[in-house]
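User: Could you check the structure of this?
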Amino acid sequence: MSSTRSSNPSPTDPVPTDHPARMRRSRVAISLAFVLHGVVAGSFATRIPWLTDRLDLTTAQLGLALAFAPVGAALAMPLASGVAHRRGARAAVRGLLALWCASLALPVLAPSLPVLCLTLLVQGAGAGMADVVINAQGVEVERRYGRSIMSGLHGMWSVGALSGSAVGVAAVHAEVDARVHLTLVALALVATTPVACRGLLDTRPEPEEEPPPRFALPPRSALLIGAVGMCAILAEWASADWSGVYLRDATGTSETIAAASNTAFNATMAAARLAGDPVVRRLGPVRTVRLSGAVALTGAVLVVTATVPAAGLAGFALLGVGVAVVVPLCFAAAGRTGDNAGQAIAGVATVTYTTGLVAPTLIGGVGELASLRVSFGVVTAALAVMVLIAGALRPRPRSRRALRAGGRSSPAAGAGGSGGDGGHPAHGLRDHLG
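Assistant: Sure, the predicted structure tokens are below.
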């Protein structure tokens, strides 16, 4: 998605795009977009057991099928910035988010494993492209808003996922067929998307700006930022997928307590994301990631050394707090690099999704060769690397071309506040928006 400002305001913009009231509407709209994206993920997760039973899948077959979703995301993400360039930011979010919502019902309609793999590939592509454009829109709103909002936006995604999961649990309890449940949810979300997206910024490229290639590789400026996100996502996905098994095997706890470890991790991560923006404004992105990394490292050490369930639970809870804001800050940092925010965000997202794809296999493989304690020792080492390279998120001056396109709006260095990371004090709307 281009982060440039349209030279001709959209007819649907009754006031200038940097007007405080307009920016409030844009923030609400992008928050709703993140919620809708999360609802789809949370809704589908509740129906995986139904899908497994219906197609009589083994654990290995289910793992194979689910791997197609991140593969589809990684393949499609580089296409997203081209869609935004050709169609405009608002239309790209509206269309790709609706595509992701519509794909919700596809897997449960699959009659066989090969068709399931194909539908999950398509669903993953929709998820990845929508992810790129809503994050690019979030970065642009953050830039014009003049302060950090990305952590809160990702917190809204968690709210959506929890909401979708809650409705799904209720549907399962009521014995509603998964095909009926997910089709109705998909239709409701598709109908809601245009209304939710109405307040989005309709940023468009400058007339002289060359379109990005149809399939854009990650720019070099995004690679080190992607490495920070890669370390965080390794810890996040490893904890999400393996926390219960780890506690059961390493501490001999019950299945109920083991399941609670995943709840502790997700709950603390969601809470930290919702509360993270004031910390980012105060400390800046680099110091925030270093502090978060220290918290995550403490949690990882507790996990690796845990001999009783309480220590393991506390460790996974601290891991949730520690990794919560890192990926949102990576997307924000990517949006400030180069001239094409969408391409940079797509690059970071591709790196993180690919890491998420291999993380469960990596943890399981190391656990098979050595032990799960050694696996989480690898996670601990990755978090240490994350702390060391956190400087990659330091705000840097934008290119002359980007500054010309952005007019007098301050860069998203405002996301870093004046916390001493090298960012610039936020200008513009900070005093108006409060």
